[in-house]
């Protein structure tokens, strides 16, 4: 009934005593199925009936992870408001915010931050959402995270901070922004390199930013 979108039939079955958290062969519960189909009304019904929001399928994905990965922003909001663990992790240790950032989805990232998710949780590679955004060169998301309070100097498993990663990416605007926001210039990664050392071999164009600072440089325009 859920897979076919038959909302009233699903209601009758649940009210008649059917197991509302039963899983199929992939251990997808009715809620996971409704989420995967982006069936907002069915999700509302199932949450109204107090289904378990934390049952993972065989891929170890709970409904909130499925909704975030598919960028179903309204369902993400419904699930969190319905009590889903907003900091839940997938099999790679990624939280919903990691996934929204990796998709470069500003609106979804903003929603999750508004729901007070933990912005500094690390995945299995010890990356935070900020280091993911910096590695990918997503300046608007980097700006959003920092301005909402993310730790700007936290390092990943290689000891690289957001600034190291921006230099690796060779994004002058991103490097300029991070320096302007006060990211540490003196943090050494596991190989012993400062961000400026990384610039020598990867992005010499940004070296003047380290040598002279950015006090007189205009901030890059960030729109999100």
UniProtKB/TrEMBL annotation:
Keywords: ANK repeat, Repeat. ANK repeats lie at residues 26-58, 59-91, 92-124, 125-157, 158-190. It holds the Pfam family Ank_2. It comes from the Eukaryota. This is Uncharacterized protein. The keyword Phosphoprotein does not apply. InterPro entries: Ankyrin_rpt, Ankyrin_rpt-contain_sf.
